[in-house]
Amino acid sequence: MEKVIIVGTGCAGLTAAIYAARANLAPLVLEGHEPGGQLSTTTLVENFPGFPEGINGPELIMNMKSQAERFGARFAYSCVEDFERAEGFVKVKIEGEWKETRTLIVASGASAKWLGLPREKELVGHGLTSCATCDGAFYRNVPVAVIGGGDSAAEEATFLTRFASKVYLVHRRDSLRASKIMAERALANPKIEPVWNSAPVEYLSDGEGEMRALKVRDTQTGAENEIEVKCVFVAIGHTPNTKAFKGKLDMDENGYLLQREGTKTNVPGVFAAGDVADHVYRQAITAAGQGCAAALDAEKYLAHFEH
After folding, report:
1. Share of the chain above pLDDT 70, in %
2. I need a labelling partner for 266 at 20 to 30 A (CA). Which of 77, 162, 260, 295 fits?
3. Residues 80, 109: contact at Cβ < 8 Å?
4. Residue 71, Cα to own-chain centre: how many angstroms?
5. Sequence-separated (6 or more) residues with CB below 8 Å from residue 2
6. In whole angstroms, what is the distance from residue 171 CA to residue 22 CA?
């Protein structure tokens, strides 16, 4: 019987691992499909406190992992396939086998939705991103594009006007899906130019492998043209990694885990931290904070359990 199993190795999971390991709980940490989470695909992180010159995303993750290992955290390259609650403990199915644990911290994150265009993976971090808050400041006084038509696209486009010389808002329809107030705010901004009825078909890079332009196709005429930009922000939403917990843990309509009283879920001994539950802030530092809180909540639960 494990004391703590942590699902996920992004900022939330690794911070939870550091705290749980320092509390002598010897947590078992499951790396999942995307070891390191979204930070592992980020080149430079400039907004994580304590790094005045910034730090590479993968390096920050490796530092956190080493720190957790130093205090006794154990790591396994596995995913959770299923989950069940039992009396006084919970069970997770890992590679066909059931493991029992007193507490479970779900920090499996959310995966950005991408368009599935050619060369997408190799351009991430080279002028292609899914986070304006993370990467907007790298694109000062140059043109950028935002793809999407919902609230997050309108919000990201508006945010990017602080840095970019121009923001093209590319949408496949002729009006935004975003809420009225968000849409109006974006479209009233002189730096934002909507590109209506346009579907992205190709990312074009320069000789150094950095984004040069976005090729779009008019959904009505079929005509193609290039929009010259230094960065493309894909804002078509995120998918929380909660498949194994569907029908067992309470979620909202989009599949994000619901937290109560801190990081508790509806199942005693199960806690949620980071982007798997947070679709508002989605920052490395807020995920780390929730990971800390989840580990403290799990420690408290275990102490109460032992008495």
Report:
1. 99
2. 77
3. no
4. 26
5. 27, 28, 99, 100, 101, 102
6. 48
